[in-house]
Write a structure and sequence with these properties.
about 325 residues; globular; 11 helices; about 15% strand; three-stranded antiparallel β-sheet; alpha+beta
């Protein structure tokens, strides 16, 4: 997908522009070409994953002769031994989920190919060709299912986290697969989910995340969802040294909204169930959950504090929705 090129910034196209010495507004020459880019190894294990940048061009020979230069980024998994297709796809899907979370929308594959070293064409003289990539035929999207291309910016960029941050993501996914899958599901499907569903799904993810982190550190397992959310917030603060929202109020509001949707109780914290589940209030809580999810992931994969704050505050809808919790 062209989205991966935008996200990674690994373009191999190089251009050189020369203007007229007497008039800088007159173009004298324009040169475009490709530079060889080394693959970027982002995960090493039974199946390794690397980012590759490729350039290409297409020339048309008609009355208006032109050359079209294109660029693309692919992520290729390799293994020393014959490995299940599903083991390869697991790594690809984990990477895809990070990019989808970074964009907060669905981003799919443009095409998918596989290659085996023993898959080659034999010639009459006994020699054979190099192994070839083969297209994987699985299914086609219905027209309404095709992920739309968007020029919206990403919350997390490859330039912010680098190969080390990407490698950390795979370790993070191994430890917290269930809550991260839940967050990725919301990120890719939020346009088709009711706000109530998103708040509940976020609550499930944060509850699982808080409990899993406490278990890994041999701490007391949280007894309530509010305690789990508070621990997720504290984990954000432990690395960055600060958290830009009112911590206790945020944890309480998310937990009470979650419980008001799921359970009948006339009043919570001095507010009726109708007030907690008021659509405008739930939209604010949903955006606050999105903020917390992105902030926690950014912290864990080594994204600089200034970078993630700038991107989150650059989202005008999100910034307005979380204003009542913000004090920094």
């Amino acid at each position: 997908s062209p989205e991966y090129l935008r996200w990674s910034g690994l373009s191999s196209i190089e251009t050189k522009i020369a203007g007229d010495e007497g008039n800088p507004y007159i173009l004298k020459s324009y040169q475009a070409g490709f530079s060889k880019k080394d693959p970027v190894l982002i995960f090493s294990g039974k199946v390794s994953l690397a980012l590759h940048s490729y350039g290409g061009f297409k020339r048309t020979n008609n009355w208006n002769s032109s050359v079209t230069i294109s660029d693309q980024v692919s992520f290729e998994s390799t293994s020393e031994e014959l490995t299940s297709f599903y083991d390869h796809m697991e790594v690809h899907q984990q990477f895809r989920k990070l990019v989808c979370i970074s964009a907060w929308r669905d981003i799919g594959f443009k095409d998918l190919r596989v290659r085996r070293n023993d898959d080659y064409d034999e010639f009459i003289d006994g020699s054979h060709s190099d192994a070839s990539f083969r297209d994987v035929i699985s299914c086609e999207f219905a027209q309404w299912e095709i992920p739309s291309k968007s020029k919206k910016s990403f919350y997390l960029h490859f330039a912010d986290i680098g190969a080390d941050g990407l490698s950390t993501w795979f370790m993070l996914f191994k430890r917290f697969a269930k809550p991260l899958n839940e967050i990725a599901y919301i990120a890719t499907n939020h346009a088709h989910l009711a706000v109530e569903s998103q708040v509940v799904d976020f609550g499930i993810a944060f509850d699982e995340l808080g409990r899993a982190m406490c278990q890994l550190k041999s701490l007391n397992i949280p007894g309530t969802i509010q305690e789990s959310i508070s621990y997720v917030i504290e984990d954000c603060e432990s690395n960055y040294g600060k958290f830009p929202l009112a911590k206790s109020d945020l944890a309480s509001d998310i937990a009470n909204s979650y419980n008001a949707i799921k359970h009948f109780q006339f009043e919570r914290k001095g507010m009726s169930r109708e007030e907690w589940t008021d659509p405008s209030r739930l939209v604010e809580v949903m955006f606050a959950c999105k903020f917390l999810a992105l902030f926690w992931i950014a912290k864990r994969i080594k994204c600089p504090y200034e970078a993630i704050i700038q991107r989150l505050q650059g989202d005008s809808m999100l910034k307005q929705a979380i204003a009542r919790w913000q004090y920094i």
